[in-house]
Each structure stands twice: as C-alpha cells, then as structure tokens.
Write a structure and sequence with these properties.
CATH architecture: 3-Layer(aba) Sandwich
Largest sheet: 6 strands, parallel
Structural class: alpha/beta
Distance between the termini: 13 Å
Strand order of the largest sheet: 2-1-3-4-5-6
Number of domains: 1
Shape: globular
Order of helices and strands: EHEHEHEHHHHHEHEHH
CATH topology: Rossmann fold
Number of helices: 11
Number of strands: 6
C-alpha cells in the first residue's frame, strides 16, 4: 500500500479544503492513490477513542497525513501503527495546539479558552471567525475564507466542542519521537493559528525529519497553494523510496 496516501482534514471545515491538494497530487503521480478520510463523528475528546476509530477504518501500510488537527491525529496513528505505516506528513499541524511552558510555540491558553467559549455560545459565528483566521496571511484572505466557509458542513456545536477539546488534549511530541518512518512537516510563514516558530521547535526536537516553511502562506495553504504543497509532498515521497 506504499502507493496510497490517506489525508485527514482539520477541525470544523470538512474535507473540501483538501480536495485541490488531492487532485494536484494525482496529477503529479497517477500511480498515487490519494484518499481524503473525514474525521469520525465522535463526541468524545479522548484521543484514544479517535485513534481506535481511525485505526479500525483506515487502510494499513499506507502513508498517513493531515491538515492541522488531521495532521496531529495522523502523527498519533503513525506512532501507533509503527511499521504498518509507510510514512507521515503533516500540514500546518503543531505538536501541541495550545501553548504550555515547555512548548510556547502555540496558541495562548486564554485565547483558546475564549475561542472555545465563543463556540459554545454561537457555533456558526465561531466557524466564520475560524475561517477568517485560517485565511489570515493569504494574498486574498477574504476570498479564501469565503471558499473555506462555503464548503464547510453545517456546524454542530457538540461535535465542534469535542474537536476543540481533542485539540487541547493532543500532544504529539512523544508520537513523533517514537515513529521511525519518514516524516515531512510543512508549516506556513504567515499562519495565524500555528506559529511559524513551531517549525524550529520541531527541528530542535527531531533534527532528522524533513521540515518545510512555505513563505507568504496562511494556515489554509492546502487550499491556497495546493500545487506548491503537492510538489513538496511528491519530492518527499520519492526521496523516501516511493518512486
């Protein structure tokens, strides 16, 4: 299954933001089977429940990847599968989404708490704000945010809150250190949700993995710059022996 790449989407916006990237990857390499797998519709915030569900339903021996929350879940699943995972790639994914004293390159805790509170009060408005944050730093930020929001599923408050609590609970540092397969981690220089400094923090933790920083790009670079991202992924797959 080394010719299969499974991509997991981020929080709240569904699978549509990954579609242009998947198409670009297929165009670069018709032999590569790119599958976008929606996140499980769980109301749990326990990472173990999400990993059980994903592990039971995703093909074995495939490359695992994802955008933002999806990349964090892919990292945990890669570590869980070990040799049954061909390799890992993450896109605008932090190792911890919410900052801690030993991982400051993340969103401030009070900012995250206010965002979660807003989601509990008005899920639709919070999703609109989130789309704007995802697009911040893009050349056409408003157009990109409209594109993100226009294809998003109807907001369900309970599921969105569970996803936010999952984001706060995940810490992929141990998983990334445990997974011995090839890894590519791409970050965006103008990301308003995952600081670009997270790239350097990751490199300090794991100096042997592949890390890239896409200049003048937003958190939603998977949708903003799909062909550039696809080219970087293709190089990584080929260099890792998937040619």
């Amino acid at each position: 299954m080394r010719d299969r790449l499974i991509l997991l989407p981020g929080w709240g916006l569904g699978s549509a933001p990954l579609e242009p990237l998947a198409e670009a990857l297929r165009g670069l390499d018709p032999r590569l089977h790119v599958q976008i797998e929606p996140l499980p519709p769980l109301d749990s915030s326990d990472p173990a429940d999400w990993l059980e569900e994903l592990d039971a339903n995703l093909a074995q021996d495939a490359w695992l990847g994802g955008w933002s929350l999806g990349g964090m879940l892919a990292a945990e699943l890669a570590a869980r599968r070990g040799e049954r995972c061909s390799g890992l790639l993450t896109l605008a994914s932090n190792l911890r989404f919410v900052a801690e004293s030993d991982w400051p390159a993340a969103m401030a805790g009070d900012t995250f708490a206010a965002f979660r509170q807003g989601c509990a009060a008005d899920a639709a408005m919070t999703l609109k704000r989130f789309a704007l944050l995802c697009a911040q730093g893009a050349t056409d930020a408003r157009g990109l945010s409209r594109q993100l929001l226009g294809a998003a599923p109807q907001p369900q408050s309970a599921a969105l809150l569970a996803g936010l609590d999952l984001l706060a609970a995940l810490d992929t540092r141990a998983a990334l250190q445990a997974f011995v397969g090839p890894q590519l981690h791409l970050f965006a220089a103008q990301d308003a949700l995952v600081p670009a400094s997270a790239a350097q923090a990751l490199l300090a933790l794991l100096p042997d993995v592949e890390i890239g920083l896409i200049d003048h790009a937003s958190h939603a670079f998977v949708l903003e710059r799909p062909h550039e991202v696809a080219a970087a992924i293709q190089v990584f797959l080929h260099e890792a022996g998937d040619d």
